[in-house]
Design goal:
The complex is a heterodimer of chains A (94) and B (143). By secondary structure, chain A is an alpha/beta fold. In chain A, 45% of the residues lie in helices and 37% in strands. Chain B has 143 residues and is an alpha+beta fold. The model of chain B has no long low-confidence stretch (mean pLDDT 88). Classes of the chains: A alpha/beta (94), B alpha+beta (143).
Amino acid sequence: MDYKVEDKGNIKVVHLSGEIDMDVADKARQSILPLIEAGNEVHLNLSKVAYMDSSGISVLIESKKLSEQKKTKFELIEVSKPVEKVLAMARKFL
Amino acid sequence: MSEAAHQNHTEKKAFLVNSSSLKEVRTFCRDVFEKLHIQQDLKDELVLAIAEAAQNIVKHAFKNSADANELMVVQISCENDKLQIAFYDRGTPVDPKKVKHREIDNVKPGGLGTFFIQEIMDAVEFKDGKKPWINHLVLTKQL
């Protein structure tokens, strides 16, 4: 998994790519949570993520919860088809 | 009697019990499902279910601390369009009564893997592992 962070004014756009599983979930977490912790609005682009499992979904939930605590915003702006399928399944449960 | 849409086939592979192996587990599954000509959407779901089950072995049966050479085995069998995926490991014995997903209103990270497995597969069965194995998990799906 790779990531890059793009500055768009007051918004940090995090682009993740590759496969997000338990093995790289911490790397994904560290690419997002410190930005939210610092009070930034974070938009997450997952258009180049080919695979995501429950560990990846956990990172999204943690990010959302932290943004609520910090009273900022965390949004998904683009999602690949494989990720959308996993999110759809997770939404039945969450 | 109608002919099976998918050829009968069995393949198995051993993997080291660690999170780095999960990518190899997915690659193995994709290769086998390619041979079975399983359509893409179902293939993606099955790969997710298998990877979540393998992740549970790493995370729960071995609590992320398996010995460096510890192995788990994944076996994929297709017979008469019934897909069976077996997992073998030597981790802490699994108590099937304790394997359940979280309550639906408990929104916090973790615990989704078991839900995904149950959503995707037709049946999830824990069996006693025969030596040298301790745990034997079987997932089934009618194709």
